[in-house]
Amino acid sequence: MADFSQQKTEAVIHVAPSPHIFNIETTTRSMMRDVLIALLPVLFTALYLFRWSAAKQIVICLAACLVGEALFTRMRQRPLALWDLSAAVTGVILGLSLPAPAPWYIGIIASFVAVGIGKMVFGGLGMNIFNPAMVGRAFVMIAFADKMAAGGYVDPDRAVDVMTQATPLTAFRQGGMPVELSDLFWGFSNGSIGEISAAACLIGGGYLLLRRVASWQIPAAVLATVFVLAGGANLMNLNSSWTVWHHFFSGALLFGAFFIATDPVTSPLTGRGKWIFGIGVGVLVMLIRTFSGYPEGVMFAVLLMNACTPLINRWTRPRPFGSW
Amino acid sequence: MRLQQVFTSYRPTKPPPGPGTFPHGVHPPERKDFSLDAPIEVVPPPKTLKLPLLQHVGQPCTPLVKPKQQVAFGDMIARGEAFISASLHAPLNGVIGKTAMTTLPNGRHVETIVLNSEGEQITGQALWDDIFGGEWPKKQYQAIEPQMVSDAIHAAGIVGLGGAAFPTHVKILPSEKKPIHTLIVNGCECEPYLTTDYRMMVEIPDAIVSGALLAARAVGASRTFIGVESNKLEAVEALRLAAAGAGIQIAVLKTKYPQGSEKHLIKGILNREVPLGGLPADVGVTMTNVATVAAVARAVVRRKPLTHRVISVTGGGIVKPKNLLVPIGISMADIIEYCGGLKKTAARIVAGGPMMGFAVSSLDRPITKGTSGITVLSHEEIKKETETVCVRCGRCVDACPMNLVPTKLAMASRLKDLNLARQYSIMACFECGSCAYVCPAALPLVQLIRSGKAMVAREGKK
């Protein structure tokens, strides 16, 4: 009978350290796929409102990010990991954060900067300090100030209605009439192609939270902070036609709170850290919107808080069970 | 019975002060169905047993027998001379063979007494009756000297049967330095697959209650709880019946891994946190497993040593999953053969459960006192994603029952940055596997942290 065990054991036994079972439902790839799924409502509203201009930006950024990823991993002599979809997520988010009229080369340059300088120079996925898409966007915003600033959003010759108007935040700064709240909510106003519909951002964001791909603390903290600060300002100046709800539904606030600030790589690890991070983003958004030369501040707010993330992680080291 | 007595024994008991659970943790699939409803069977005595001299935490025991010597069932064949050690007894009648070396499931090579079966053996129902059958007294043991219980446990060579294999007489000891107010008997069995403790609670609740009362008497505890997870209500019912009027409370805990961890069970029942690096005694608690107290009852009431234990043989890779009463030292091959052999899909054989058990490379390993089961996993069950990089999603932080930052500890271990590892309390990790179970990047977190712990421990010794 000893033969029996010998024979069988040689064929099958694999030895490995514990644990021996794994949750294989949630993987890096499935998380990235969920982000892409969550971006679908935003994508559809963008395509509906901006037609070919939106399609063009997204396709250019997606393709350039994938090419960039392939190129830079080759330069680093690392195995190509396009299948993890992280480059695709960067591409789609970047495309959605551009103005519709921006020329084709802006998307390409932004994508290469996003993947190359935003991610690869730090050592690739998981090692980067700053949100890659926002690094790419910040670069083109500074390098092509005329095409990316307020004026870049307006193209009077386009057939698409919303593109002939200034963005609501800019219009308001220039003393113009604020847009109807319902238009802001559903997306009938100008802006970066992914940010204009608050409704689409809420649907996609809700999906991310349900799937636990994005942690709820960050959007909650960002929105609560903006609510308190904008609400306070609103109370002090009741006659202002720009209410706290205009702050909520205009610009990239919801898009940023759900899709950009929640990037796990560049946000803190612990619940407490995520609250601090989100509050920081909210405060910076309001400071930039109110006091700086830029009408919108989500991108810079997220990038600045990204820089603070390692520090926040150190501050919020969890208390081990049984220690005081 | 006087009215007042009736009244006190039926008084509804206060619920335990704890929240019935602990923060964090994970929900791996339970998969207890394989062997859940299989009554404990007595395995026929095998031809040969291998009895390693170190099956417990502490010092190895010293052999008392020579090759070719005749021994009888229950004879002491090796004595645990050090304080933290445990004696070894013959699980059947036979002749001692040549001393050998065996590899324990944890990889240690240990000197081993070989015992070849010879002559008539007590087996089947007779063996069951000898070990677990009959009456188990449940009166308050006021007449028994606490020290006597501890001595009986020492003589019987009992160690923690839940897996830790810490010599029980060291724990179940009247202590003046750290007075014990509460005894908790651990019947959580939070490891997936395993049904050892469950079957014992269902089939021999009286022995468990009897042993719990004895252990409580020995440590001087005024309260006794038996903690059971909510997925084992049949066991809860059986224990409640057996413990009626005995002054033992059954605490039902939320089913979550690792609820059966010492510190987390104390949190769940008493809402106390054992200090980092401390022991349950630091919060006035002694904890022991249900199978261990059953062995204590047998040692004190019947003066019989620990020679057999109950194990589960389970998983998708075994033909007939079972719960078995086996002699200590029986080889895994004998057990697997008794359970119909391995399926073609079998891929990994684990001593213990799938979260914390050790994979074995050969079936000639013996079952030791601390082996709570054999889990044979199929290819399907051990499926793992390809390893990617950490995207700092924080799932490991949310899973860690010790509230550590596993990804940080793994990185510190990988970079051999021992200061960073210590800063993040690496030694608090008890390798429950929750982090590695949930990790979307399939990182070998436990393996890395284990190596980091070893490095920190080595450095501490220098």
Explain how this protein is built.
The complex is a heterodimer of chains A (324) and B (462). Chain A has 324 residues and is an all-alpha fold. Helices cover 61% and strands 0% of the residues of chain A. Chain A has a single domain (28-312), classed as Ammonium transporter fold (Orthogonal Bundle). Chain A has helices at 2-12, 28-38, 40-50, 52-75, 86-96, 104-119, 132-143, 145-148, 168-173, 181-186, 198-210, 217-236, 244-249, 253-260, 271-291, 298-315. Chain A is globular, with a radius of gyration of 22 Å. The termini of chain A are far apart. With 462 residues, chain B is an alpha/beta fold. Chain B folds into 3 domains: 3-30 and 132-301, NADH-ubiquinone oxidoreductase 51kDa subunit (Rossmann fold, 3-Layer(aba) Sandwich); 40-125 and 307-378, Ubiquitin-like (UB roll) (Roll), CATH 3.10.20.600; 395-461, no CATH class. Chain B has 16 helices and 18 strands. A 6-stranded mixed sheet of chain B has the order 1-15-14-18-16-17, sandwiched between helices. In chain B, a hairpin with a 5-residue loop joins β8 and β9. The longest helix of chain B has 17 residues, at 445-461. The chains are: A mainly alpha (324), B alpha/beta (462). At the A-B interface, α1 and α2 of A face α9, α11, β16, β17 and α15 of B.
